[in-house]
Amino acid sequence: MTILAGVIGDPIAQSRSPRLHGHWLARYGIDGQYMPLHVRKDDLAETLRLLPRLGFAGVNVTIPHKEAAFALSDERTARAEAAGAANTLVFRDGRIIADNTDGLGFVASVQQGAPNWQMDRPALLLGAGGAARGILAGLLAAGLPEVLVANRTADKAVALADLFPGNVRAVPWDRAPDELGGIGLLANTTSLGMTGQPPLEFALDHLPPEAVVTDVVYAPLRTQLLDRAVARGHATVDGLGMLLHQAVPGFEAWFGVWPEVDDALRAAVLA
Predict the structure, then answer these.
(1) In whole angstroms, what is the distance from residue 209 CA to residue 195 CA?
(2) Is 66 a catalytic residue?
């Protein structure tokens, strides 16, 4: 029987996930289909109960449904609980199991793209939205001693830091560049710098030479932030790696194979 999976969102036409999973399905010779599913907010609950009856093994979840999918699930992994959102759902025995692989994918991407990343030093995250929460949980699970969070709306940074007492510190946006001196990783989790969005204005003057700079944005693949970091001699990691690595656990749960993230996959997704 053909195994079905997909990705739900609103909008969904821009998603690269079907190309990503399609590459793996062909590579491993699996009888499966992975499809984009345009689901509106008001239809989400009904859709999630219907999909298992249509033969779906699970789905990925993207904007704007991650928090709602988490709330609608029957079981949640520790990663999903820490993130407060779900990007991966597994349908099993009539139950919806929620997972969040954003943090895992982010850490794996940086480790692959910058093998010399100094994980014994703090990180600074720009942004305090859903992506930041999942990434923050992943960084702490990986053993980072401290994570600083800066957001243009200060209250959101404080609220996010309060969810992880003792390991996370909110810093004002305008003073965040002054906090760069001791960090090992700078990560932009906002939409600033994305195609069609305003640029990210953030000074890098105090960033240590050995610090890694990464951006979750992958349209464009090389953002202005990454270009400025390269000009200063920093190791950089683009946002595509996180997309690729976060997809691995879901693929294994639905199709039974732990897939490889390599240059062939990147080329297929960027084609």
Answers:
(1) 28
(2) yes
Do both 156 and 186 map to the same domain? yes
| Strand-by-strand arrangement of the 32-38 sheet | 32-38, 3-9, 56-61, 88-92, 95-99, 75-76
Does the reported pTM lie above 0.70? yes
Please compute, for residue 261, the number of CA atoms within 13 A of its CA located in the half-sphere on the CB side. Answer: 20
pLDDT value at residue 10:
93
Q: How many CB atoms lie within 10 A of CB 253?
A: 20
Q: Are 210 and 184 in contact (CB under 8 A)?
A: yes
Could you count the other beta carbons within 10 Å of the beta carbon of residue 269? 20
Residues 180 and 227 in one domain: yes
Strand partners, 38: 9
Parallel/antiparallel/unpaired status of strands 32-38 and 123-126: unpaired
CA–CA dist 72, 257 (Å, integer): 27
Average of per-residue pLDDT across 205-224: 94
- What's the structural domain count of the chain? 2
**Mapping DSSP to helix (H, G, I), strand (E, B) and coil, where does residue 222 land?**
coil
Mean pLDDT of 138-157: 96
Token pair listed for 154: 């200060």
Same domain, 216 and 251: no
User: Helix 263-270 to helix 17-27 angle, to the nearest 10 degrees?
Assistant: 130
CATH at 12: 3.40.50.10860
CB 179 within 8 A of CB 156: no
Q: How far is the CA of 206 from the CAs of 109, 192, 210, 271, in angstroms?
A: 24, 21, 12, 37
**Which residue among the candidates 16, 21, 65, 66 is catalytic per the annotation?**
66
